[in-house]
Amino acid sequence: MHHTFLNLLTQNDFQDFLFSNENLDEKELVLKHKSVFEIPCSIIANQISGRRKAKLKLPTFYNTKGIVYPPGINIEQCSSEATAQFKVEIIRKYLNKSETRGVDLTGGLGIDSFFFSKNCSSLHYVEKEEFVLQFANHNHVVLGATNIEHHQIKAEEFINSTRDTFDFIFVDPSRRIKETKVFKFIDCEPNVYALLPQLFKHANLVLIKASPLLDLQQGIKELQFVKSIYVVSVENECKEVLFLCERDFTGEPTIYCVDLSAQRKSIQFTFTEERNSEVQYSEPLSYLYEPNASILKAGAFKFIGNKFSLNKLQTNTHLYTSHELVENFPGRVFKIEMVNPKESDLKKYFPYGKANVATRNYPLSADELKKKLKLKDGSDLFLFGVTSLKKRVLLITRRVSNL
What integer is the mean pLDDT of 15-27? Predict the structure, then answer.
């Protein structure tokens, strides 16, 4: 479909149709019509759903006329605009220069490449699949990214055949091999573990995206010269784990936990700091604190309590408490209204039988606890089932801050 339909999809008439019919039910369209503007409706349906998915995730792409979405490529799995721009920030932090030459070894839809290119004098986009490259190339032209050079070649072949040197190399290895999900770098494609020595012949800095499920210590074991690890969440959902490797770096990596919400709160720590942090425990006091997803993923369980002078509820209950409200905590903060409510208290606080129910280190899941207490979702109040030092407790709480 590539050349023929790319031309048809970018015609003004079709783009006008696409922009004015974004809420069209694409399934209904396919049932009612075979084609529109000489384009099969199955392809149009793909463009409508692709653009809809891009609305919040890729606003630049969504708002630009002429962008096309390749079939069968899962937009949910590509980088978001927010995480792509954050990668640019990382590179800029370490390369404080205007003439930057970079490589995206795993180009895909070209989202990361596009944002890198805005801060590079030249960028090489590498992608083995011809049809994916054609779409990315087209979109880069539409977006005015004229400094990207596209290469249809495997990552390993590109790096083994080039004689150039670069300021940085970015690689996001595929974690789905023959329909199986993998996490370790050694199992991904390309195999970054094996490729890294070759990458360092061409660049001092290598930024590697990992599965959010990868254990950070495992990643450090597999890679060389890990200088920094960025655990990135968006609106309190862990989205990316990025390993920045610098050739010949010695020392302990710094871990940055960043949530890309409006407030952009972040902390940094090392595993030594986490090991050496003293933790105080207590039963629930006046306020309850839940660290954001990045901090929980990174395992800063003792460090976060220590840093904000908070008491922890229990070793494996990663919730914290204090008498006085602590400002600027990177996570959700709740005022504790009642500990271990009786049935009459539950009726008083939840007169409509609705609550936001959550459990942490508790024998029942949130759904099981809701069922047991005959509660439905809703309300401004939160009911937590938690394990504290001495016992299991229920806490009725009111949200103080988001993140």
Answer: 87
